[in-house]
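Continuing the batch. This is chain 6 of the set; chains 1 through 5 are on the previous pages. Same settings as before, nothing changed between runs. Recording input and output for traceability.
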Amino acid sequence: MGKTDIRIRMLGGFYMEEGGHTVSGQEPINISGRARRIWSLIEYLIIHRDREVPVTELVDILWMSQEREDPLRTLQHNVSRARDMLEKMGISAARELIIAKNGGYRWNPQRPTWVDAEEFESLVLQARRAPEEETALELSRKALELYRGDFLPGMGMEAWVTPLNAYYRSLYISQCLFAVRVLGEREQWAEVAALCEPAESCAEDAEEMAVWFVRALTAMDQPGRALAVYEQTKKRLQETLDIVPSEELEIAREEAAKKLSGEKMDAVAVKKLLEEDGYSGGAFFCDWSTFRNLVRRQARALVRNPMDVQLLVATLEGDLATPTDSKRLERVLTCSLRSGDSFTRLNATQFIAMLPDTTSENIAAISRRLNDNFTRLYPRSRARIRYGHYRLEKAGLERLEEQQL
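Output for chain 6:
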């Protein structure tokens, strides 16, 4: 590499290097302050340095229509300021980096410029075309090492940055999953965990990443940390996608929980593990395995403490019910039942709830309350809900009594 070559980093922060030295300092360049528009101009020309960018395109990128009183003059002023800023950074021949040509501007093609985002994309595409798994894995490792975070953080609101950030993040998650699957099959758990930790936090919908992360931590004798990752993922899935963890993630959690039973913990650690974060009221929504254990425990408790306990089944019926209605019913159950009640999803159209200290006479009133709340919250829904209930007994369950409301 020649001493006048320029290296640009845009993933995880904006840095500029020349001749192997970081001219922007150890911290990323602040591109979100008063000079935001100037840096946006520089970054856009770097990304599109293979062509002359027309003045009209730059005006559309940098200014909203209501700000364009004298766009050509303003653009010329901003180009001059951009050259000044690059010169103050100490880059050699900085004023020659942005050149005017053919009625537009471009990044000087005579200055070799390397951009990490472009190198990252190239390595990912090479990995996908690689004929052998080992070659693909090695290329993936090199690509993932380059990805240090979002594309131009601090510029996320810029219209031209948003699609590029989504594109690079998608490449990162998909290639990370490829590497994790290969390494997981080889039981190289330390590297799996190292890849999953940064990826899992920025991949809100990549539940498979969390599964591998939990499995890796469990295999590395860190079940407590594995369970913490599970809880964080479960909360994120519910808050962002309004879904429950998959069977694969639940299995990974159970493996971590089993291993944790052999791990010594002090009282503070146990208390932290058992604490419920972010409780905002309402019934306890849990997975099927947890619900089944709660029911079994309650059935045993009836031996010494007899009480009426009802199991309420809510079923969406008819062709008018939609997947959205299922999520709506879940919300209604959460906010309409008591904090001591628990419930889970049976399938795509059914939920079952356990209602301690509830008689069969109370069920009709509870069912009406659920229906009234559903109608009040979602008046446009055309779904119909059928309720049935069992009475929990010490030796089993009484027959189902159905109520059509």
